[in-house]
Every structure is written in C-alpha cells, then in structure tokens.
C-alpha cells in the first residue's frame, strides 16, 4: 500500500478535524509500500477505493512492513507483555507433573476401554493433551491478563499504523479501560468454544472407537478410523481458532463482544477461510518448532555439560515471543483485509471506534 495516498486498508476518517490533523502529522518517512498486486489502493480526493483480499503470503509481507515501520513499539510490547507469558509456557513452571501423570493414566484407561491400542503414539498423544490441558488451566490468569493485554496492544498498534497515528500509551490506557470488559467477555466465550470443541472431539472419538470395537475389529484397525476422526477434528478446530482470533480483534476495534463477536468474525472471514488456515498453520508450525527446540535443548540435557542453557533458554523464549507477536499482527492485518473488502463491497465506511472512545474520554488528540 502506498501510504502517501491514504491510510490503508482502513477508510479515510470521516471527521474533517481528525483528517486535517492526520495530514499535518503524516510521517514523511512512512515506507509501508507493497507490490501493486497485493496493495490496498485508496484515492484520498474522491474516496475512490480499490481493495483486494490478501493471500497469506501477502498478509505476512504486510505484517513485516508494519513491524519495520513501528519496530520499537512492537518490540516493547513483546518484551513487556509477551516474553513473560512465553517463558512460563515454555518452561511449564506452573504445571504440576503429578496432575499431568494422573490425567494421562486416566486417558490411557479410557482409550483402552474403547478398544484403542496403547501404542507409543497413543501414549504420547495422551501425555501431550494432559500437559496442555493442565498448563492452560494453571496459566489461565496469565492468559487473561498479560496475554490478552498484549493482543489488544498489538491490535491498537496496527490500527494506529493504518490511521497514520503514533502509538500513545495514555490514549491506549483510556481505551483499554473502556473496552477491557468486552475483551475479557469475548475471551471467556473463546475459551468456552475451544473447550467445547475438545470435549466434542473426545466424545466422538470414544463413540467411534467403541462402535468399531463392538463390531469385532482388532485394535490395530480401530486406530485408522480414530486417526480419520482426529484429522477431521483438526480442521474443525483450526477453523474455530481462526474465528476466535478474529473475534478478539473485533472486540477491540468494534463495539461488539461475546457471541456477537464470534458470529461477526465467522461472517467476516467467509470466503477467506483458506487464508486463515494458512496463517494458523504457519504460526502453529513456528510455535511447535520452538517448543521442540526448548524441550530438547533446554529441558532435556542431550549434549555437553548443559552450560549452553544459559543463553539458549532466553534466546528460545525471545523466538517464541516473536512468533506470538507475528501471529497477533497477522490476525489484525487479516481482519483489516477482510473488513475493508466487505465494506467496499457494501459501499460503507469503517467507523473509527477507538478514536471515538478517545474523544469521548476528553483527552486531546495526541498524534
């Protein structure tokens, strides 16, 4: 996008006073330029818009350009809000291994009762599921505070970049105090949706395995329909997570929350699901790669005397935080891409909700 022609991909602010201030404070060295095929071209004089829905690769490129433009702000968010969460997640310092072991044993007993063979793959899957579940429960207060605040800060920073405004901590504080309840409410609904999907998967897996066991199939053959169920569920869960991620962005930028935000997210990304799946796949692979490195290079002493843990541990925490930052930024860019395309199709303008909140608070417009 060529920022010299207008804020992209958001529509030009309809408030003349704010528009004049934006022009006066427009940074001359703003270099958020994209190739013509993937750019949002906005005519500033006659409000002639030409939006294009972005592919996953174009969204990644757009994210990198936004990161380069405001690298100091995003790095500060990563250092203050994301790194502590990453350190806790990777180290599992809050996870009680005795609980993980007990839950793993119960899952293995359930799997055996349904006819599934207790192969190493099944045992590892049960252990990983148990560890993830216990970690999510123990880290929930951290996710509800720092992690959620970091997502809101990233969304606000991306919004400021597209509006050609500087990130202002006082304005962000005023905004977050006004919208925090609806963000938390949406996040609780997100947790409920994800938990419901997982419970539905376990129930469906038990039913399928039990039915094939009653029909007389050997345990080794029962494993195949169970794997098919797991594959189908993975696609469903990925779609649910994409919808939930965009719902969090919507709860920050729009005056909706909870189930309304989830429904709006589902409607907004309609036709762009493949792009969302690719974004989710890339982020998941990146996080899993760093988690694997941390497991084998830091937790497990598999080489040397372990002295390299001193620098490898913090480095992997920083890498994991960077992946989480990019994931949040890509979700925000994906939202703006879908939103701009939908608004252009409906010939409407995006309401500047965050700016309205700032004005209603009585704070001066610090650009």
UniProtKB/TrEMBL annotation:
The lineage of its organism: Eukaryota, Viridiplantae, Streptophyta, Embryophyta, Tracheophyta. Residues 1-30 are annotated as: Disordered. Keywords: Membrane, Transmembrane, Transmembrane helix. The chain crosses the membrane at residues 72-91, 134-156, 187-215, 221-254, 275-294, 314-336. PANTHER family: EXPRESSED PROTEIN-RELATED (PTHR33133:SF1), OS08G0107100 PROTEIN-RELATED (PTHR33133). It comes from the Eukaryota. Residues 1-17 have a biased composition (Polar residues). The keyword Ribosomal protein does not apply. This is Son of sevenless.
């Amino acid at each position: 996008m060529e920022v010299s022609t207008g804020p992209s991909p958001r529509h030009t602010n309809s408030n003349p006073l704010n528009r004049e201030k934006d022009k006066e404070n427009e940074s001359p060295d703003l270099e958020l330029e994209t190739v013509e095929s993937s750019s949002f071209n906005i005519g500033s004089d006659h409000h002639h818009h030409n939006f294009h829905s972005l592919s996953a690769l174009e969204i990644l490129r757009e994210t990198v350009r936004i990161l380069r433009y405001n690298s100091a702000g995003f790095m500060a968010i990563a250092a203050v809000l994301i790194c502590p969460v990453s350190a806790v997640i990777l180290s599992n310092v809050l996870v009680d291994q005795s609980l993980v072991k007990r839950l793993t044993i119960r899952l293995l007993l359930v799997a055996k009762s349904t006819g599934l063979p207790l192969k190493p793959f099944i045992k590892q899957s049960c252990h990983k599921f148990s560890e993830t579940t216990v970690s999510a429960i123990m880290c929930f207060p951290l996710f509800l505070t720092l992690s959620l605040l970091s997502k809101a800060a990233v969304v606000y920073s991306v919004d400021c970049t597209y509006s050609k405004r500087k990130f202002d901590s006082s304005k962000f504080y005023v905004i977050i105090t006004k919208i925090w309840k609806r963000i938390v409410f949406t996040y609780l609904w997100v947790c409920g949706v994800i938990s419901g999907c997982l419970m539905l998967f376990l129930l469906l897996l038990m039913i399928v395995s039990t039915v094939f066991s009653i029909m007389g199939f050997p345990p080794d053959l029962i494993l195949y329909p169970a794997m098919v169920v797991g594959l189908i569920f993975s696609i469903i869960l990925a779609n649910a997570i994409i919808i939930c991620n965009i719902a969090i962005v919507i709860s920050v930028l729009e005056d909706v929350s909870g189930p309304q935000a989830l429904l709006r997210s589902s409607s907004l990304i309609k036709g762009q699901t493949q792009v969302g799946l690719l974004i989710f796949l890339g982020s998941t692979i990146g996080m899993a790669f760093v988690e694997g490195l941390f497991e084998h290079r830091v937790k497990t002493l598999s080489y040397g005397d372990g002295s390299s843990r001193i620098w490898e541990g913090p480095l992997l925490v920083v890498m994991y935080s960077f992946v989480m930052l990019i994931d949040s930024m890509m979700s925000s860019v994906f939202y703006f891409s879908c939103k701009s395309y939908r608004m252009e199709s409906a010939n409407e303008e995006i309401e500047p909700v965050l700016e309205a909140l700032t004005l209603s608070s009585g704070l001066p417009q610090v650009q």
